[in-house]
């Protein structure tokens, strides 16, 4: 007896040490993400709403609207800021803590409902799950949502196991309370109620919902759903209607073939396939047992498998068939991924128990399974820490340090601008896909989050650049390529200079209106250069000793997967290259792999030597891959220019003596010609 007790205590100690090590590993992965990965753009919205909550007590934004997304998460983030000062790290800490709490919860649920081995394997899977690392490291509501959703689902199952009316009523209210916390953490929780209501009917019959111990909990849930919807309508006037019109949440497309590629990697990627196959095995075993008897007569583990499979498959089926086309993102499966891990762990446990009867062998196999799953999951988990996101935090910090009184700041990311700079941007600069993010306040269109004025016309940008001493535009290359019209892009390339870039985000600065060069030569004859097409070019007058301004106009004719640079060269009549400038088209403001179907300028300036003789010179262009040096196309002649010599600066244009006594041959020939012309005129 004593030996058995010692063995049990030793086993418990090993379990505690193992769980502590797993929590430490998960914590390290998530903390490393918090410390090294830039903020995802939506994080700034959460932080800005939390900042406003600290200032006013409620997340009312400068535009007058209430920030309703993840309402409870906003208050949790604000509390973290109140305790330690709101910054990037403190704003992310609640997610990290909720992520670790979910890991402990999945362990306890797996252990209590199935077996300790199930809890351990599911917790291991969650510790290494890339999405869990990401959302446990971001200042958003998804980690909090997953925690409360998992507890809600467990409480719903737990309540159905009650044997007394008092216990049932208490468990049902706990279930309802957790549902409300999950709902106000994120609205996607609404997807959990239909499968939970269905499960209740399947387990206990439809009359069960009307029992005195049950119906108050469901009434509370339905009231909370109505209140949450009312908060949305009142707090965000017009937002729901605009979203439904522009990109509806629900659209009965039933196009599984189109939506499946978004979610398939979450289920059938090589490192995930064992979990999916094992989960299907557990589900098959539970269904086989169900075929032999009633649902309530099934062993607890099979009941749990069927119960947790129901919301998992319901949510998956919903997002595959009914979710709006523009809402197909892997994060919307995040709230039920713990169920997928629990089912997979239950299947793996079933294999172990079926194939090995000796407990020592089962323990050894569990160690091997742990090593195998760790080996499969570690590369993907580690890769998350090497995958940076857009560096709006770094670039806005630079602008904040360089900003001067009177500077104007524009950006398509007003929450990031407002939080980092401490005040809203002057303008919300965007031309496409902005309707749902603006409201009318005091007769002007402003963005919902910071109240910055909408700048959606190229003429507005021209006016701002022409009148302000300095104008900053902070954007990322993808948005610059996709959210603006071609004339806006061209104006940015012509008037702004890139001054700082980090992780795909660039700070552009315009310092007064820059008049374009006086072009005297132009052509619109298209000329192919590999995957780029030169649709035309312009040039100023060519004169020795003076800079020659040339602008090439490029358009992509095929997908470009790398950065291509252009090389402009001036070639003398004798074939000598006398001037050259290499550089990225669009001045590098837009990379060539984001050249779409628009025409973008490529301004170049050639410094012409003063000694160049007059004549007809060729302009040649080469396009090459920057990384490999491989020539894409060229050198090809795109046109010719008549170059005039450097103007004579001596007295009256006749006194051509060389004051240094070092006249060039060209100068002597020119002096002789002038003297000869003068004699001829006198005769």
Keywords for this structure?
6-stranded mixed sheet; alpha+beta; 16% strand; elongated; 5-stranded antiparallel sheet
Verbal overview:
This protein folds into 6 domains: 18-140, no CATH class; 143-246; 252-355, no CATH class; 392-510; 521-644, Immunoglobulin-like (Sandwich), CATH 2.60.40.2550; 653-682. The protein has 22 helices and 18 strands. The protein has helices at residues 2-36, 41-56, 71-84, 88-113, 116-128, 130-135, 142-160, 165-185, 193-204, 215-235, 239-246, 256-268, 273-291, 300-321, 337-355, 359-384, 392-402, 414-421, 458-467, 477-482, 486-495, 665-682, and strands at residues 408-411, 427-429, 438-441, 444-447, 453-455, 471-476, 497-502, 505-510, 521-523, 527-529, 532-539, 542-543, 547-556, 564-571, 577-583, 600-607, 615-625, 631-644. A 6-stranded mixed β-sheet has the order 5-2-1-6-8-7, with helices on both faces. Strands 9, 10, 11, 13 and 16 form a 5-stranded antiparallel β-sheet that branches. Strands 12-18-17-14-15 form a 5-stranded mixed β-sheet, with no helix packed on it. Strand 3 and strand 4 (444-447) form a beta hairpin. The longest helix has 35 residues, at 2-36. Mean pLDDT is 89; it is low at 651-683.
